[in-house]
């Protein structure tokens, strides 16, 4: 069960929405950079991004004690669609294959196209960094999932 709510939950949820918005916007910029060169490759990238979020929700988010009240807003709900609650502890494989690898893939793929457009490249990375920092500083720090290795509130 997810521990009791803390006082800053609404602020944390706002940051969850803000960070997801920054991250999705950065990935959209990557998609547009690819689309400018190839419709087919941009569609493939879009499928990879959607698949990465699904994989993350199945492998990593299914173990979240608080997925019914997800601070990342939609990812917890996505995990409920694709997987049952898994009460086991997180493993290194969960972190690698359920979080790090899917995110690395969606961020590495568009670099070839982004490097050709300095505005897209800068926007992509500025939005990505802001989104990640927002997650680490506000969302993870106030997370109530004591099993998550990113959760800072119980350490």
Rg, Cα atoms, Å: 16 Å
Following the backbone from N to C, one meets helices and strands in this order, namely HHHHHH
Task: Note the overall shape.
Answer: globular
Quote the beta fraction.
under 5%
Low-confidence stretches: none
Distance between the termini: 18 Å
**Number of distinct beta strands:** 0
Number of helices: 6
Q: What is the number of domains?
A: 1
Mean pLDDT: 86
| Oligomeric state | single chain
Largest sheet: none
What's the helical proportion of residues? 55-70%
Structural class: mainly alpha
Secondary structure layout plus pairing:
Elements: H1 9-35, H2 39-59, H3 74-82, H4 92-108, H5 111-114, H6 118-139
Helix pairs in contact: 1-2, 1-6, 2-3, 2-4
Supply database-style keywords.
6 helices; 0% strand; 155 residues; mainly alpha
Structural commentary:
By secondary structure, the protein is mostly helical. The protein has one domain (9-142). 65% of the residues lie in helices and 0% in strands. The model has no long low-confidence stretch (mean pLDDT 86).
What is this structure, in a nutshell?
With 155 residues, the chain is mainly alpha-helical.
